[in-house]
Task: structure prediction
Amino acid sequence: MRPSVLDPLFATVTTLPGVGPKIAKTISGLVGGQPDREATLADLLFHIPHGLIDRRHRPGIAFSENGQIVTLQVTVDRHFPGPRGGKAPYKITAFDATGAISFVFFHPRRDWLEKNFPEGEQRIVSGKVEWFNDRPQMVHPDYVLSLEEAANMPAIEPVYPMTAGLAAKTLHRAIAAALQKLPDLPEWQDGAFIERNLWPPFTEALRAIHTPQEQQDLSPEGPNIRRIAYDELLASQLALALVRQTMRQLGGVSRRPDGALQKRVISALPFSLTASQAAAIRDINADLAEPTRMLRLLQGDVGAGKTVVALAALAQVIESGAQGALMAPTEILARQHFASMKPLCDAAGIRLALMTGKDTQKERRLLQEKIDAAEIDLVVGTHALFQGAVTFKDLGLVVVDEQHRFGVHQRLALSAKGRSVDVLVMTATPIPRTLVLTCFGDMDVSRLTEKPAGRKPVTTVSVSLDRLEEIIGRIGAAISNGQKAYWVCPLVEESEKIDLAAVEDRHQVLEQALGQRVSLVHGRMSADEKDAAMAAFKAGETRILVATTVIEVGVDVPDATIIVIEHAERFGLAQLHQLRGRVGRGDKPSSCVLLFKGPLGETATARLNIMRETNDGFLIAEEDLRLRGGGEVLGTRQSGTPGFRIAQVEDHADLMEIARDDARLILETDPELKEKRGDALRCLLYLFGRDEAIRLLRAG
Ligand code: ADP
Ligand code: MG
Result:
């Protein structure tokens, strides 16, 4: 149960004065409550300002610079209301000893203006000055006060990330009210550690962040943010350590079959394993032989051949008499895994089934019966596999492909489907070390460091969209020579409709230019339609596949040699690299055309340059982290580090390592979190939404 000291923080924002259902909804959207859950005061208080406004700056009208926020003491001169009903703004002129200024109002409330700007009287006005035709003006000042009221204006104000439909003042008031309710919380950190770092207590830090007196109060390197970032990191590391501890305690099954099934799978391959594939399989076999659970991350650049390793692992578990599951992030990928594994499974005698969200109830029931009867050894599927209703007779290994799209709890949900499920997580995103730690915690890692032999690097060029026709001409020539090409159109997040129009449009243009040899795949198509389009492309009936980014992860057509990425400037580096990984999978030289629409910003230019310069996924991931921050490396968020509200990979990487060691130490001395600090740490886990881990404690 949640410690009651936290209750005030888990009240919803509607309990705050001035926050009705409508504002609550807007606030919830902004501060990261889930769509179906109203934000709590804790959510609100973790919405921290990204800057501050200093209203103490009083340069005088003539010395106010363009774009600056200033506070002026002026004498109101005259009102120029503009014709009634007209579009012209309402203007009020004023002056001080240095010069004159206009205050400008659109859609004015006249009576309010007349009352607040009485002609001939002095007023304190604060807002942003803009110079327009060599004259200063201020559009919609933030504050207008009489001299007596001047003290009501805060000298320094935090500035929050905002959203449409929410007034800054409303948010400020809500946060101020929430701060009032902040309870005294027990210290969950080690006292000596806090002292050494000169960090304030949690509540003090949070208060200081919302009532900053100087930039330092808000700085990611300052003590307030670092303190709370560390709290958050510790919560996350502790949760992951608890998961791991539980998995270890529950114990695993030692699986030591003689490996015949694995050998059959490997010898059915039309190629020999790379050294790193073989090494990864050895790691996995050793893990499986141990009586503890496996929790291993298989990291390898796109095209490195992770699927084969997964299948080898699954074969080992299946030979020992258990069942396996492989989970893919999208339907297309699940189908593709199924298709590519089928011949190998047939050759080795592994009974394989596919499960997706599109199955009919009847199909699902039949499949479930077969799984129950142990007539199926291996199920490949999408998140349909997570659903509570699906059960296994004896699930021994779960392979999760492209893990970063799944959360920790989903992983837990799935591993709860067997008595002692081993977990192998595969990711093609070359996640830098720091992120591995934040996202996966204490996992063992195998890396596929080499590509299969004979692969040629992909030549990458960037070309302006102005040269579209020329590019179409060249693609036409290439496909007449027997080549195959992907043509990727970007996802415009705001509107699925526009996306659809863009791909359909492009499809039509290409079809007209190149004849009927162009397939189309996008997210709105049915699974069958997608399959048919992919199959036609794979078989070579069509030579171009126009697609939205649904092809991003994992699609495998080894003889495709060209990929055109339209509006490449809109993609993140990791995504571009993933997409480029669709080609260069065979023994023919391949190329990647980054079609951009200029003018390019600085970051976009840097990104395209990096793409031209290197094919190395790890280098690209590090650059991506540098250019855009942690969240985007994983492609999950506009900014910030995924799953974290305060902590940032770029700023707090040093703290991450400390938090991991700290978490380990804590569980070594108090594995059940039962002692005094343990109690406080339970608060911490709840506060940062990592309380699922506490349930594990009770279960175990
Ligand atoms: P990813 O690591 O991106 O998931 P895949 O498992 O899809 O890569 O493998 C990419 C392609 O490389 C597939 O066509 C696969 O059959 C092939 N492949 C995998 N391992 C080898 C190997 N050792 N030698 C040659 N080709 C391989
Ligand atoms: Mg893959």
Q: What stands out?
A: The longest helix spans residues 223-250. The domain at 458-614 is CATH 3.40.50.300 (Rossmann fold). The radius of gyration is 30 Å. The pocket of adenosine-5'-diphosphate (ligand 1) is lined by residues 271, 273-274, 277, 300, 302-308, 428, 452, 554, 556, 558, 585 (CB under 6 Å).
